[in-house]
Amino acid sequence: MSSSLVAYDDSDSETETGKTEVPNTSSRQTSHTSSSVNRVQYFAPGVLGTKSTYGMQPAENTDSSGTSTVCEDPPEHYAQNANTDLTFPYCRRAYSGHAALCMPYKNYEQTSGFATNSGNGLSQKRMHKDSTPAIKGIRPYIPKRLRQENSSVPEKKESDQRESSDCDAKLGVSGEQTLRKISELIKPYLGSKYKLTEVPKSLIFYMSKHSGPVNEMQWCPVREQSHMLLSASMDKTVKVWDAIDTGCCLKTYSCHSCAVRAAQWSSCGRRILSGGFDSMLHLTDVETGKQIFSSKNEFRISTLKFHPTESNIFIGGGFSPEVKAWDIRTSKVLRVYKAAVQQTLDILFLPEGREFLTSTDAVSRDSADRTIIAWDFQSAAKISNQIFHERYTCPSLTVHPKESVFVAQTNGNYMALFSAQQPYRINKKKRYEGHKVEGFAVGCEFSPDGTLLVTGSSDGKVFFYNYHTARIIRTLSAHKEACVSATFHPVLPSLLATCDWAGEIKIWQ
User: Fold this and answer.
1) Are 304 and 262 within 8 A, CB to CB?
2) Mean pLDDT confidence for 348-375
3) Fewer Cβ in 10 A, N or C end of the chain?
């Protein structure tokens, strides 16, 4: 692995034009399902006021790719639902998202404190400072004789209380309905066009069931089921959340024995592809938790991406000079893309999927040859390896939803803009800077309408940039630990999910 170090500026940027602070969460209470829907009721038409003209993008044909054989469910897959909502201890393995990682594992373990402050598994909403916690655990005295005679009744009541206070959905018939439901808050937006994204200001849900850093998040690509949010964590688990109506964890998948570095929804929304530091690849049925596809890889996985038009094919890379394409129908490797690198940090398919990009850890003193490589998907040939010439690794890539450009997050504490067409020239007039990366695998993303570019920051903030001017519109003080990902909801206007190095996930509007 490259031993080169990345130089960066530690000073705080003074270019912020606005700032929104997180409410004081010292007196947070556990959110109840009955009241959590009221927190986001203003998504419904007629209550948005000036936002009532918002809609969504035209419905995409997700079924065209979802009709393949892998998305056809055999009846036995739904005959039984396994309750795998387990929380395993953190994988005691150094996280190395890329070669320029600046935080040793020992220092991280001593300073983060995630193993002690998130074990309660709370799913909370924003509370006021004068909120007082509910009194729990007080019961009237029951004589021993009555307890023995009616032993079954108290046990049932106790289990009912646990079920009502626990935010996890108990999978069964009701669990399947929860996973497949269409949120009442999403329904009004399924027939209109997404028009405008505004910067979110209010905290809707605070979710902290992960006991390790959250590496990746993704909203379900099936728009009718986009209430579900997928998260992958260093605590060896993948979780699915109801991040719209309740803020509850619907399902936990514990099929990995080490940290889960990457996780992706299938296009049909009924499968989850995951890979991690145990070198395992799993394709898991969302409802049953069963592994449909599993493969032992010869290297640790750091990034996975489904092909945008061929739903049965995905590409994966990690701690290896090779990137591989798999077909989940045959469980075999289709192609191997060979590059003289030690690690692949991220993969980005360009529109229509004929070409894709890989960001790597290849950095030298004089040039950045092979830092970003463009590949021909079918022939596995390199199209270009001279795209980015500055001496910084790029932990994440994202493509614009409407224009033929893409952005690379760099360890130089800025995002660079490139053309998505050959020869992939960099736009030297635009540079999105002001946030901090500092060795974290900080993700970046465009808003669904393409007007905003959002990124996390190692100081816990979220930065919103005007895509056209590259100016900072606002910063959001979202987390105390490094914010590694921020992603806009594909349907609901201005709804944002963020996650951090302490294992917290927050929903903003």
Assistant:
1) yes
2) 86
3) N
**In three state form, how does the secondary structure of 1-44 look?**
CCCCCCCCCCCCCCCCCCEEECCCCCCCCECCHHHHHHHCHHHC
Given the DSSP bridges, would you call strands 452-456 and 461-466 parallel, antiparallel or unpaired?
antiparallel
Query: What is the per-residue pLDDT across 207-240, written as a single tens digit (0 to 9) for each?
Result: 988 999 999 999 999 999 999 999 999 999 999 9
User: 480: Cβ–Cβ under 8 A, 6 or more apart, which residues?
Assistant: 460, 500, 502
| Residue 285 β-bridge partners | 271
What burial class does residue 322 get, using C-beta atoms within 10 Å of its C-beta: 0-12 exposed, 13-18 middle, 19+ buried? middle
Chain position carrying tokens 């890979």 = 275
How far apart CA 427 and CA 303 sit, in angstroms, is 26
Pairing mode, if any, of strands 472-477 and 19-21?
A: parallel
Rounded distance between C-alpha atoms, residue 77 and residue 301, angstroms: 27
Residue with tokens 């596995």: 380
Q: What single letter denotes the amino acid at residue 126?
A: R
The terminus-to-terminus CA distance of the chain in angstroms comes to 41
- What span, in angstroms and rounded, lies between the C-alpha atoms of 319 and 342? 6
pTM of the predicted model as reported, rounded to 2 decimal places: 0.70
The pairing of strands 280-285 and 414-419 is: unpaired
What length is written for the chain? 509
Q: How many Å apart are CA 101 and CA 442, to the nearest integer? A: 11
The structure tokens listed for 18 are 């606005």
Task: Record the tokens describing residue 410, joined without a space.
Answer: 């760099």
CB 284 within 8 A of CB 270: no
Q: Which residue has the tokens 């992706």?
A: 264
CB 292 within 8 Å of CB 326: no
CA-to-CA distance for 157 and 174, rounded, in angstroms?
A: 20
Q: How many angstroms separate the CA atoms of 306 and 312, rounded?
A: 8
Q: In what order do the strands lie in the sheet with 483-488?
A: 122-124, 203-208, 505-508, 496-500, 483-488
d(CA 127, CA 125): 6
| 504 pLDDT higher than 70 | yes
Evaluate whether 45 touches 53 at the Cβ level (below 8 Å): no
